[in-house]
Automatic annotation (TrEMBL):
<comment type="function">
    <text>Putative transcription activator involved in regulating light control of development.</text>
</comment>
<protein>
    <recommendedName>
        <fullName>Protein FAR1-RELATED SEQUENCE</fullName>
    </recommendedName>
</protein>
<dbReference type="GO" id="GO:0006355">
    <property type="term" value="P:regulation of DNA-templated transcription"/>
</dbReference>
<dbReference type="GO" id="GO:0005634">
    <property type="term" value="C:nucleus"/>
</dbReference>
<keyword id="KW-0539">Nucleus</keyword>
<keyword id="KW-0863">Zinc-finger</keyword>
<dbReference type="GO" id="GO:0008270">
    <property type="term" value="F:zinc ion binding"/>
</dbReference>
<comment type="similarity">
    <text>Belongs to the FHY3/FAR1 family.</text>
</comment>
<keyword id="KW-0862">Zinc</keyword>
<dbReference type="InterPro" id="IPR031052">
    <property type="entry name" value="FHY3/FAR1"/>
</dbReference>
<keyword id="KW-0479">Metal-binding</keyword>
Length: 117
């Protein structure tokens, strides 16, 4: 999980951070900016902006159907396990699909469990 986005998590997280403007004003974005490297944060921002274009339907047992508003095919299933702060998408990546679910569930921070330090 979080592979492409957080793989470059490093200790010098504050280096150059202030030079990247926030794009969405979503709290989760500001949290991400304080947590990950500028390089990773740019990729994260792209996923975040994309995540705002999904229709998200809550299903039973903590699962969510995620669909891009322009595409009738390509539905994804996102499973959330709040007790373990875990979130998985059927495409096996943590990206815009999972982010979309976090946003509709009023997450203001990225789940700590997903940071491979
Ligand atoms: Zn996905």
């Amino acid at each position: 999980m979080l592979v492409g986005i957080y793989a470059s998590y490093q200790n010098q997280v504050h280096e150059g951070m202030q030079h990247i403007p926030i794009k969405t004003c979503i709290p989760i974005e500001e949290h991400g900016r304080s947590m990950i490297t500028p390089f990773a944060f740019r990729a994260f921002q792209q996923e975040l902006v994309l995540s705002l274009q999904y229709a998200i339907s809550e299903m039973a047992y903590g699962s969510y159907l995620v669909r891009h508003f322009k595409k009738m095919d390509g539905e994804r299933l996102v499973i959330r396990v709040p007790e373990e702060e875990q979130i998985h998408c059927s495409c096996k990546e943590f990206e815009s699909h999972a982010l979309g679910v976090l946003i509709v569930k009023n997450y203001f921070q990225l789940p700590e469990r997903d940071f491979p330090i």
